[in-house]
Amino acid sequence: MNIEPGWKTYATAAVFSLPALIFWAFGLIILLPNVKAALELGGVDFSNSNLGWLWRNPLFLADYRDFILIAILVLLVSLELLSRSWASWRRATVGILVWLLNIADLYGLTLLVLSTLLAVSGLAHAK
Question: Does the reported pTM lie above 0.90?
């Protein structure tokens, strides 16, 4: 079995993770504050509604982003240093982690867009 070198696996993962990390940063720095302001302006309150999950899920990803990334890094470093069979599973596992990162990013951004649409519809009905 031909095992890919670790540097190549992690370089490929970094390249495929970069768009997700850029969109995640965009969502945190620009999109999330604007959506919060639009929701407040539109009078949308998710705290007592059935749509509370729509707002809590992106906030969870935003609030715990550092913990999530550090946990992934600690896991990968631990596996590199402590596991002998890790090299044969590295490529598949890192690929799945990158895929999950991209899915979580798209999920969070989609929920932010849906929240914004609800806020805009609230503003439209208020006038």
Answer: no
Contact 98, 14 (CB under 8 A): no
Q: Is 114 exposed, middle or buried (0-12, 13-18, 19+ CB in 10 A)?
A: middle
pLDDT digits (tens, 9 = 90+) for 35-88: 778 777 777 776 666 667 777 777 887 888 889 889 999 999 999 999 989 999
pLDDT digits (tens, 9 = 90+) for 80-127: 999 989 999 999 999 999 999 899 888 888 888 887 787 777 666 655
Q: What is the 3-state secondary structure (H, E, C) of the chain?
A: CCCCCHHHHHHHHHHHHHHHHHHHHHHHHHHHHHHHHHHHHHCCCCCCCCCHHHHHHHHHHHHCHHHHHHHHHHHHHHHHHHCCCHHHHHHHHHHHHHHHHHHHHHHHHHHHHHHHHHHHHHHHHHC
